Amino acid sequence: MSLLRWLGLCALLLVAACGRDGPAPAEGRGPALWRVQGHGLDGWLFGTIHVLPKGVAWRTEKVRAAIDGSDRLVLESAEIQDRARTMALFEKMGRSPGLPPLEARVPVNERDELQRIAGEGGTSTQLLSGYESWAAAMLLSAAAQQSLHVSGDEGVEPALIKDFREEDKPIGGLETVARQFGAFDTLPEAAQRRLLAQTVEEARRMKALYERIMRAWLEGDMAAIAREDEAGEKPDPVVEQAVLIARNRDWSDVVGKLRGRPFIAVGTGHLTGRDNLIQLLEAKGYKVTRVQ
Known about the structure:
The protein is α/β, with parallel strands linked by helices. Helix content is 47%, strand content 11%. The protein has 13 helices and 6 strands. A 6-stranded mixed beta sheet has the order 4-3-5-2-1-6, with helices on both faces. Strand 1 and strand 2 (41-48) form a beta hairpin. The longest helix is centred in the C-terminal third of the chain and has 19 residues, at 237-255. It is globular.
């Protein structure tokens, strides 16, 4: 269960960096987009990536047409529009008094790597020790991504928010920010530490992994994204249930109450694997058709 996957495809915490311009999809390709129809709804479901290099040309003609034809934007959480509030909530939920040093929460053979990642990312294990293991894992992954020259400001969600604000269309969410962070915050400490250890291990191959995920997303290659999950460590069932499956089920219930022509944008990681959002919507009787 990759923290890079959460930061790139699923999670809320955004990193800030600057760097090179990004690529464009091959002719006739683009990020995965579906038409969702049924129960008074005729809208779109779009798989996003939350952190990107500058200048990635992901708005294809089909994506633009779907945006233009929609009557509102529905994100994982509309509250991400308020960056300060989001980060304040992260600080509140992610910190606890009396926590053990961060080094003590990872295997002995990973401690040098932990210190290297923190130092190169502009932080330290001493500073991160004030955070619960899930929050430290997110911050550590964000620190490791500094070398990737990616940014949450260049991610899909800020661009979509700008598009819909300019058209004076409403923006809603499938859940609250507290629910998103809460999925991690309520994990047992053992599961949080496994997530932390995996983040440290993953940092060694961060650049190659991110580039594969970003290219697969840009080409709409859902099979390749699924293979990345299969090629990595076996997902922790506790984490998978809390962070993916339970939230997907909650989201399918919220979508069931929507009407009209929403443009629903969620992390692509929620659209692959067991009990993904597409499968759950189809089980509720929606017609879900891949259009890109």
